[in-house]
Design brief:
The structure holds two protein chains of two kinds.
Chain A lengths: L8 H7 L5 H7 L8 H6 L5 H31 L4 H13 L2 H12 L3 H25 L3 H9 L4 H31 L11 H7 L4 H29 L1 H7 L1
Helix pairs in contact in A: 4-7, 4-9, 4-10, 4-11, 5-7, 6-7, 7-9, 8-9, 9-11, 10-11
Chain B lengths: L1 H5 L1 H10 L1 E3 L6 E3 H37 L3 H13 L2 H12 L3 H25 L3 H9 L4 H31 L13 H4 L1 H34 L2 H6 L3 H8 L3 H5 L1
Helix pairs in contact in B: 2-10, 3-6, 3-8, 4-6, 5-6, 6-8, 7-8, 8-10
Classes of the chains: A mainly alpha, B mainly alpha.
């Protein structure tokens, strides 16, 4: 992955932290203006960070979704497991991401993988909570009807409970998507690049800040819409009822 | 000896407790005195921002929930708030309005408003309509219903929103040094002065401060929850549902 190749980003960063204010003036005549022209000219500079950011969002979401859904199904079966797990991931979620990244690089090293570990940990509480709530909110009568038809508990879980929980599950996934994009903004502290690094490279140059921030917002919106599209495709019965 | 065994963490912990030379050797950095200065600025900034955001968003959210209209507004604010990254918001304010306590505080207020507003709205809307009808039946006015029935019943959800806001504000205040406000983030973004030990030491303090604030707020939350709701919380499943409300379902 490209992130692995990034050498001590922060070490370089500290030297030109407020970076290049001189440079900004060169690139953008007329003081520190917004400069749409500059953004258009330099747009290609943002494509690589954008791609890093996409990977930093999609991969943790995918891993986190599989992990949290599995754990939630376990917790649904053995309800005693839910409170301790939820308490654990809630504490993880509370730790500020910058601190999390910087503490983690002392354990697992700097790079893309470390950022993915932290970001996956952050998705857990959002997805787990919603999957479990969704499973628990399936009406008792529906489950009993399935049992009465002779379905096994595995068939009930995959054929009845999970499908009925999908709207709640996807609501959690959607929140996780946009929050992961936001937290990945700090992933460069773990040496994984992303759009946050572009912002930090020159945080007082308006053109730079606007270009990178807008890309982050668009990415968050696009991911949420993608999740929504998958949800619609998977739950055709919902459309039939609500529209 | 113990420090050596802990590796970078031992050095970082030493930074928290003992002053040392800066990287360039020109000034003294670290030690409890400086860490305390950073921490107090950090908390002052965070509490100010959360307080202002609460003063703005709470009455608005309760009112919107009470009249039960403008769901679109509450939903949009929460959606937009989720999509706008904290980093982008802070840096945007710095780039366009300049540095300083006031500007970074204003950015943090904007960050804190969506969760408070959404939870207040969802909490009030989630009050059992029959309870509201009963209150109306015994002759309570609209304002009385809002303040004496809906507000207490929605309090756990409302407090949860403020707690989410406070935690994310404390986390984001870490990048306030970009605006020349010396919070605990100062050693984190200036490792060329404070060294990697200072960076890691500050991270540990930031994490502890956030967890401490979250825990303190959880205690406060339990203290202000009306007795009637605590009784209702006793069954396991219900406690789970109340403690971790999912605002998403009713807002989206």
């Amino acid at each position: 992955m490209s992130g692995l190749a990034v050498t001590p980003v922060l070490a370089q960063l500290s030297d030109d932290f407020f970076g290049d204010r001189q440079g900004a003036a060169d690139r953008c005549p007329g003081n520190n203006e917004l400069c749409p022209g500059w953004i258009v000219d330099n747009f290609t500079d943002y494509l690589n960070p954008l791609w890093e950011h996409v990977l930093l969002s999609v991969i943790p979401l995918a891993i986190g979704f599989v992990l949290a859904t599995g754990l939630a199904m376990l917790a649904h079966r053995y309800p005693k497991l839910a409170p301790p797990f939820l308490a654990f991931v809630s504490i993880l979620f509370t730790i500020p991401s910058i601190a999390f990244y910087l503490i983690l690089i002392n354990v697992t090293g700097r790079g893309f993988a470390t950022a993915v570990v932290a970001l996956t940990a952050y998705t857990q509480v959002l997805i787990f909570r919603n999957v479990l709530t969704g499973l628990r909110e399936v009406p008792q009568g529906t489950v009993e009807a399935a049992q009465g038809m002779g379905m096994s508990s595995r068939q009930i879980l995959f054929g009845v409970e999970l499908p009925m929980a999908l709207p709640t599950i996807f609501a959690g996934l959607r929140i996780a998507a946009s929050s992961t994009v936001g937290i990945a903004g700090f992933a460069f502290f773990a040496g994984a690049g992303g759009l946050g690094q572009s912002i930090f490279a020159d945080p007082r140059f308006r053109g730079n800040v606007v270009a990178a921030s807008v890309l982050m917002i668009l990415l968050a919106a696009a991911l949420e819409l993608a999740v929504l599209a998958v949800q619609r495709a998977l739950t055709p019965w919902q459309r039939a009822v609500s529209r | 000896m113990i420090h050596a065994a802990l590796g970078p963490f031992g050095d970082a912990i030493e930074f928290i407790f003992k002053e040392r030379e800066s990287q360039a050797g020109t000034v003294r950095v670290g030690g409890l005195g400086e860490i305390w200065d950073f921490t107090s600025t950090h908390l002052l900034l965070s509490f100010t921002a959360t307080l202002i955001a609460t003063a703005i968003a709470l009455p608005l959210g309760i009112w919107l929930g009470h009249i039960g209209r403008f769901q679109f507004l509450a939903t949009s604010i929460s959606n937009i708030g989720r999509a706008v990254p904290a980093l982008g918001l802070i840096v945007f304010f710095i780039a366009f309005l300049g540095v300083g306590f006031t500007n970074v505080c204003a950015a943090l207020v904007l960050l804190a408003i969506p969760p408070i507003l959404t939870n207040a709205y969802v909490g009030v809307r989630g009050v059992d309509p029959e309870t509201v009808d009963a209150a109306r039946g015994v002759g309570l006015t609209g304002t009385e219903i809002a303040t004496r029935v809906e507000l207490p019943l929605a309090l756990p959800t409302i407090m949860n929103g403020i707690r989410i806001a406070l935690v994310s504000v404390i986390a984001t205040a870490t990048i306030a040094p970009l605006a020349n406000v010396d919070t605990l983030g100062r050693p984190i973004i200036s490792p060329n002065v404070y060294g990697t030990a200072g960076q890691l030491g500050s991270c540990i303090v930031v994490a502890l401060v956030t967890l401490g604030a979250d825990g303190a707020f959880a205690a406060l939350q339990r203290a202000v929850t009306p007795k009637g709701l605590k009784v209702g919380q006793r069954p396991k499943a219900r406690r789970f549902a109340l403690k971790f409300p999912i605002p998403t379902r009713s807002t989206t």
